[in-house]
Automatic annotation (TrEMBL):
<protein>
    <recommendedName>
        <fullName>Heat shock 70 kDa protein 12A</fullName>
    </recommendedName>
</protein>
<dbReference type="InterPro" id="IPR043129">
    <property type="entry name" value="ATPase_NBD"/>
</dbReference>
Length: 600
C-alpha cells in the first residue's frame, strides 16, 4: 500500500466521489483535517438498504410518476411491492440511463444501442443524471451526519464548499464531461460559475481503478520493478482497459499511462441482454413467455452471479412449485439452462477482455506483465477464471484484489484526488486544426488538389490538418502545446474576441493529413473561445503616412495531459527595458452536442 501525505490545507474540507454506474452506484468520501493523514471511507448505508450490513452500492434506478416527479431511487426502487405499485400507478423506470451519455462518434446500430432502455418521456439524460446526483448527495449527507461525532455540525461546516470527483468510462470525452457538469449544476452540487466549476474534478474509471489497486495490492513487480500492468475495470455497462507502469526513477510514487485507454460496451448488462435474446426465442411458444421480464430479473440476481461451470446446468428460480412445463425445462418454478448456453452469454465479454489486453500489450510503450481485474463484473468467478486461463499462457499474471472490487472506482476516485499518482497519459486520438498552406507544384499530393487552389496575398494555398498531438503519444500533465496567432485591424473593436476549432481524427490512417481522405473520421472536438479585451495592442504606422493600424500577437496553449482538456491564451506584457513578461488567462471550451458534425 502506498503511503499518503498529511493534509497541508489550513481549513477542514470534504471530498465526495460519486461513481454513477450503469447498474450500480457508490459513494466514497474523505474528511480532510489539517495536519492529519486523510482516510478514504465508503458510504455503506442507504435508504431501504439499511438491513444489508456494509452495502457499498445501490441500484442505478429512478422511478418517475406520471407528472415527472421522482418517486423511488436506488434501493428504494427495488423494495418489495414497488414493481407492482409502479405498474398500478403507471410510473416510468429510468435504468441504464448513463449509457445515453455515451459518445456518438462512430456510433451505429449494435447490441448496445438497440437495447438501452429509453429515457422517460420529457426527461433528458441530464435531467435524470441530475436527479440521481441529487439523491447521492442526500445519501452522503445523511450518512455523514449519522455516523460522525457532531455529524450535523460537521456537515453544516462544509456543505457549501464540498469538492466533488465524478468518474466516467475511458471512452468519454469533453462532450460527456460538459454534460456531467451541467447535471452537477442542475443537481445543485456546485454553482454555475468559475469557482463552482473548479470544485468538480473528472477521472476516468480506469485511472480511478489504478489508484484503488495501488492502495489495495498491485503486484510486487509493478510496484517495485516498474512492470507494466493492465487494469481491467469490468462494470455493468462498459469494460474499461487502461495500462500503466510505475516510474521507478522518481523518489515519490508516480505512474505513467503506457497505452491509449480503451472502452468497450461489453459489461455485465450484456450478459443479461444475450440471455434475454436466447430466452425470448426459447420460450416463444411457451405460456411463460409473459414472465420473461421477471425471469431475466431473477437471472440477474442469482444465476448470472453464481455461474461457474459450463459443463453443469444452471437454474433460474422465478416461480412457485405449481409452475411446470417439461417441454421448456421448467419444473417447480425453476427454468433449467444448459451450462454451455449460459457460457455463450459470457463469451463476448470474455473475448473482449482478452483481445483488449492483447492489443494493449502490443501497443504499450513499456512491457506489460500483469493484469488486474476490478469492478462489479470482475466478481464473477467464471469471468475471472476464463480470462485467467486465456491470458496466463501468454506469460501474464492475472489477479483480483482481495478488497471489495465493486467499490474500486469510488474509492479510487478519492485516492486520485488525494494521491494523484498518474502524471503522464497517452493520447487516444490525433488532435489538430485545419489550416491553409502554400501550394507546392512539385508535391504529388498538392498537384492532385490543384483544382482547390485559392489565392491569398499572391500565395496559392491548400487546406490540411495542422497537428497539435498525434495519437498514442505519451504526454505529461505539464506539457504545453502552443500555436502562435496574430490579428491586425484599423479598428480596436475588432479585438474583442477570437475562436477556433480543435479537430480530431478517429480513423486508422497512420499519417492523416488531408481532410478529403477518410473525411468521415475527422470530427470537431470543441471550440476554443478567447476573450481578447485585456490583451495589449501594438499601434503601428503604415508606410508613406498611410495612417495607423493595430496588431495583437498571442498564443493559444492546450494541455492534453490532464484528465480534462484545458486551454489558455498567453501574451507578453511589455515592460520598459524588457522583452516583456508572459501573462495568461483561461479560455472557454465549448463542446458541440453532436461531435460527429463535420462542418467547419
Amino acid at each position: 500500500m502506498a503511503s499518503r501525505s498529511v493534509y497541508s490545507g489550513r481549513k477542514r474540507k470534504l471530498v465526495l466521489a460519486f461513481d454513477v454506474g450503469t447498474t450500480f452506484s457508490g459513494i466514497s468520501y474523505s474528511v480532510l483535517d489539517p495536519g492529519q493523514v486523510p482516510e478514504i471511507k465508503p458510504v455503506t448505508r442507504f435508504p431501504a438498504h439499511e438491513h444489508i450490513s456494509g452495502a457499498s452500492k445501490i441500484p442505478t434506478i429512478i422511478y418517475y410518476d406520471r407528472t415527472g416527479k421522482v418517486r423511488a431511487v436506488g434501493a428504494e426502487a427495488m423494495k418489495e411491492g414497488i414493481y407492482e405499485l409502479a405498474e398500478d400507478e403507471n410510473w416510468t423506470k429510468a435504468e441504464w440511463f448513463k449509457l445515453h451519455l455515451r459518445s456518438k462518434a462512430g456510433a451505429g446500430r449494435n447490441l448496445a444501442t438497440d437495447n438501452i432502455p429509453p429515457l422517460p418521456l420529457d426527461k433528458s439524460v441530464i435531467d435524470v443524471f441530475a436527479d440521481f446526483l441529487r439523491y447521492l448527495l442526500q445519501c452522503a449527507a445523511t450518512y455523514i451526519q449519522d455516523t460522525h461525532a457532531n455529524g450535523a455540525a460537521l456537515w453544516a461546516s462544509f456543505k457549501d464548499e464540498i469538492d466533488f470527483v465524478l468518474s466516467h468510462p475511458n471512452g468519454w470525452e469533453g462532450t460527456q464531461q460538459q454534460d456531467m457538469r451541467r447535471a452537477a449544476v442542475q443537481a445543485k452540487l456546485i454553482p454555475d460559475n468559475a469557482s463552482g466549476h473548479a470544485r468538480l474534478t473528472f477521472v476516468t474509471e480506469g485511472e480511478a481503478s489504478l489508484h484503488f489497486a495501488i492502495q489495495n495490492g498491485l503486484p510486487t513487480g509493478a510496484m517495485k520493478q516498474g512492470d507494466g500492468v493492465v487494469i481491467v475495470d469490468a462494470g455493468g455497462g462498459t469494460i474499461d482497459i487502461s495500462s500503466y507502469c510505475r516510474n521507478v526513477k522518481e523518489s515519490k510514487e508516480t505512474f505513467e499511462e503506457i497505452a491509449a485507454p480503451l472502452c468497450n460496451f461489453h459489461g455485465s448488462v450484456f450478459v443479461s441482454i444475450h440471455a434475454r435474446l436466447f430466452l425470448q426465442q426459447f420460450l416463444e411458444d411457451s405460456p411463460f413467455i409473459d414472465d420473461l421480464e421477471h425471469i431475466i430479473r431473477c437471472f440477474d440476481k442469482t444465476t448470472k452471479l453464481r455461474f461457474r461451470n459450463a459443463d453443469e446446468p444452471s437454474y433460474v428460480k422465478f416461480g412457485s412449485t405449481r409452475d411446470n412445463d417439461e417441454k421448456y425445462s421448467i419444473r417447480f418454478g425453476q427454468l433449467k439452462l444448459q451450462g454451455s448456453d449460459v457460457a455463450l452469454f459470457f463469451e463476448p465479454s470474455i473475448n473482449c477482455i482478452v483481445k483488449s489486453v492483447t492489443d494493449q500489450r502490443r501497443e504499450a510503450h513499456k512491457t506489460i506483465r500483469h493484469v488486474v481485474l476490478v469492478g462489479g463484473f470482475a466478481a464473477s468467478d467464471y469471468l475471472f477464471a476464463k480470462v485467467q486461463a486465456q491470458l496466463a499462457p501468454a506469460g501474464l499474471n492475472v489477479l483480483r484484489p482481495d478488497n471489495h472490487v465493486n467499490k474500486a472506482v469510488s474509492d479510487g476516485a478519492i485516492s486520485f484526488y488525494l494521491d494523484h499518482f498518474v502524471r503522464t497519459r497517452v493520447s487516444k486520438l490525433t488532435y489538430g486544426n485545419f489550416c491553409h498552406i502554400p501550394y507546392d507544384p512539385k508535391a504529388p499530393d498538392h498537384k492532385a488538389r490543384q483544382h482547390k487552389i485559392f489565392v491569398v496575398n499572391l500565395h496559392d494555398n491548400r487546406s490540411e490538418i495542422d497537428f497539435w498531438l498525434v495519437q498514442n503519444t505519451q504526454v505529461t500533465e505539464t506539457k504545453e502545446f502552443r500555436k502562435s496567432y496574430f490579428r491586425e485591424s484599423h479598428s480596436k473593436l475588432e479585438f474583442k474576441g477570437a475562436s477556433f476549432n480543435v479537430w480530431c481524427y478517429r480513423g486508422t490512417m497512420p499519417d492523416p493529413k488531408w481532410k478529403d481522405i477518410d473525411t468521415n473520421n475527422y470530427t470537431k472536438l470543441c471550440t476554443i473561445e478567447v476573450d481578447l479585451h485585456n490583451l495589449p495592442l501594438d499601434a503601428k504606422s503604415k508606410p508613406n503616412g498611410g495612417g495607423v493600424f493595430y496588431r495583437l500577437d498571442y498564443e493559444i496553449m492546450l494541455l492534453f495531459g490532464l484528465t480534462e482538456l484545458k486551454a489558455f491564451v498567453a501574451w507578453k506584457e511589455r515592460i520598459v527595458y524588457s522583452q516583456g513578461v508572459e501573462k495568461r488567462s483561461a479560455t472557454k471550451i465549448v463542446y458541440d452536442p453532436d461531435i460527429t458534425d463535420s462542418s467547419y
